[in-house]
Design goal:
The chain contains 3 helices and 4 strands, in the order ααββββα. It has helices at 9-19, 26-41, 108-130, and strands at residues 69-75, 78-84, 93-97, 100-105.
Length: 132
Amino acid sequence: MKDWNSLTLDQMVEYLREEYKFSSSGDAKCIYHLIEFYDNKNKASDDTIPSGLCWSEPTPPIIGISRYDHVTCLTPLGVAIIEWKSWKQSDSYSLTIVNEYIGEGFDLDGAKQLAVEWLSNKHKELSLVLGI
Protein backbone atom coordinates (compact mmCIF):
# COMPACT_ATOMS: atom_id res chain seq x y z
CA MET A 1 0.00 0.00 0.00
CA LYS A 2 1.40 3.37 -1.02
CA ASP A 3 1.64 6.20 1.48
CA TRP A 4 0.48 8.93 -0.93
CA ASN A 5 1.24 11.65 1.62
CA SER A 6 4.95 10.87 1.46
CA LEU A 7 5.25 10.98 -2.36
CA THR A 8 6.07 13.98 -4.50
CA LEU A 9 3.79 14.75 -7.45
CA ASP A 10 6.44 13.40 -9.83
CA GLN A 11 6.60 10.13 -7.87
CA MET A 12 2.80 9.79 -7.93
CA VAL A 13 2.72 10.34 -11.68
CA GLU A 14 5.41 7.72 -12.28
CA TYR A 15 3.64 5.20 -10.03
CA LEU A 16 0.30 5.73 -11.84
CA ARG A 17 2.00 5.64 -15.25
CA GLU A 18 3.40 2.17 -14.49
CA GLU A 19 0.30 0.92 -12.66
CA TYR A 20 -2.12 1.69 -15.52
CA LYS A 21 0.20 1.22 -18.52
CA PHE A 22 -1.56 -1.84 -19.96
CA SER A 23 -5.08 -1.30 -18.64
CA SER A 24 -7.98 -0.39 -20.92
CA SER A 25 -10.50 0.57 -18.23
CA GLY A 26 -12.22 3.96 -18.20
CA ASP A 27 -10.28 4.87 -15.05
CA ALA A 28 -7.00 4.03 -16.77
CA LYS A 29 -7.92 6.18 -19.78
CA CYS A 30 -8.69 9.12 -17.49
CA ILE A 31 -5.46 8.65 -15.54
CA TYR A 32 -3.48 8.36 -18.80
CA HIS A 33 -4.87 11.72 -20.01
CA LEU A 34 -4.15 13.38 -16.65
CA ILE A 35 -0.57 12.12 -16.77
CA GLU A 36 -0.24 13.34 -20.36
CA PHE A 37 -1.57 16.77 -19.30
CA TYR A 38 0.96 16.81 -16.43
CA ASP A 39 3.79 15.86 -18.82
CA ASN A 40 2.75 18.55 -21.30
CA LYS A 41 2.60 21.25 -18.62
CA ASN A 42 6.18 20.40 -17.64
CA LYS A 43 7.50 20.91 -21.18
CA ALA A 44 5.66 24.11 -22.06
CA SER A 45 8.88 25.71 -23.30
CA ASP A 46 8.85 23.63 -26.51
CA ASP A 47 8.95 26.10 -29.43
CA THR A 48 7.52 23.59 -31.94
CA ILE A 49 4.02 23.70 -30.46
CA PRO A 50 1.71 25.81 -32.62
CA SER A 51 -0.31 28.62 -31.00
CA GLY A 52 0.21 27.50 -27.41
CA LEU A 53 -1.29 24.02 -27.77
CA CYS A 54 0.80 21.47 -25.94
CA TRP A 55 0.86 18.18 -27.88
CA SER A 56 2.20 14.89 -26.57
CA GLU A 57 5.10 13.18 -28.28
CA PRO A 58 4.11 10.69 -31.03
CA THR A 59 2.91 7.56 -29.27
CA PRO A 60 2.35 4.02 -30.59
CA PRO A 61 -1.11 2.42 -30.25
CA ILE A 62 -2.41 2.13 -26.66
CA ILE A 63 -5.38 -0.06 -25.74
CA GLY A 64 -8.35 2.12 -24.88
CA ILE A 65 -6.80 5.31 -26.30
CA SER A 66 -6.05 4.71 -29.98
CA ARG A 67 -5.46 1.80 -32.34
CA TYR A 68 -3.01 3.93 -34.32
CA ASP A 69 0.07 6.05 -33.75
CA HIS A 70 -1.15 9.30 -32.26
CA VAL A 71 -0.54 12.55 -30.42
CA THR A 72 -2.95 14.11 -27.94
CA CYS A 73 -3.55 17.57 -26.57
CA LEU A 74 -5.76 18.81 -23.77
CA THR A 75 -7.73 21.79 -25.11
CA PRO A 76 -10.23 24.04 -23.32
CA LEU A 77 -13.00 21.97 -24.94
CA GLY A 78 -11.52 18.56 -24.17
CA VAL A 79 -8.99 16.13 -25.57
CA ALA A 80 -7.81 16.45 -29.17
CA ILE A 81 -6.22 13.43 -30.82
CA ILE A 82 -4.41 13.15 -34.15
CA GLU A 83 -4.07 9.59 -35.45
CA TRP A 84 -2.24 8.05 -38.39
CA LYS A 85 -1.27 4.63 -39.70
CA SER A 86 2.50 4.69 -39.51
CA TRP A 87 2.87 1.44 -41.45
CA LYS A 88 1.45 3.14 -44.56
CA GLN A 89 3.89 4.98 -46.78
CA SER A 90 1.54 7.93 -47.29
CA ASP A 91 -1.30 8.33 -44.81
CA SER A 92 -3.39 11.29 -43.74
CA TYR A 93 -3.45 12.59 -40.16
CA SER A 94 -6.98 12.43 -38.76
CA LEU A 95 -8.05 15.01 -36.14
CA THR A 96 -10.74 14.34 -33.54
CA ILE A 97 -11.65 16.73 -30.75
CA VAL A 98 -13.83 15.42 -27.91
CA ASN A 99 -14.81 12.38 -30.01
CA GLU A 100 -15.93 14.58 -32.94
CA TYR A 101 -14.18 14.04 -36.26
CA ILE A 102 -12.85 17.41 -37.43
CA GLY A 103 -10.84 16.64 -40.55
CA GLU A 104 -7.47 15.55 -41.87
CA GLY A 105 -4.05 17.02 -42.56
CA PHE A 106 -1.44 15.86 -45.05
CA ASP A 107 1.14 15.78 -42.28
CA LEU A 108 1.28 16.10 -38.48
CA ASP A 109 1.91 19.86 -38.54
CA GLY A 110 -1.01 20.34 -40.91
CA ALA A 111 -3.34 18.43 -38.59
CA LYS A 112 -2.10 20.47 -35.61
CA GLN A 113 -2.80 23.66 -37.56
CA LEU A 114 -6.28 22.33 -38.36
CA ALA A 115 -6.84 21.93 -34.61
CA VAL A 116 -5.78 25.54 -33.99
CA GLU A 117 -8.10 26.81 -36.74
CA TRP A 118 -11.06 24.73 -35.52
CA LEU A 119 -10.58 25.84 -31.90
CA SER A 120 -10.27 29.50 -33.00
CA ASN A 121 -13.51 29.24 -34.99
CA LYS A 122 -15.26 27.53 -32.08
CA HIS A 123 -14.05 30.31 -29.77
CA LYS A 124 -15.52 32.96 -32.10
CA GLU A 125 -18.84 31.08 -32.31
CA LEU A 126 -19.09 30.68 -28.54
CA SER A 127 -18.15 34.33 -27.98
CA LEU A 128 -21.00 35.43 -30.26
CA VAL A 129 -23.50 33.13 -28.57
CA LEU A 130 -22.43 34.22 -25.09
CA GLY A 131 -22.13 37.89 -26.05
CA ILE A 132 -18.52 38.29 -24.95
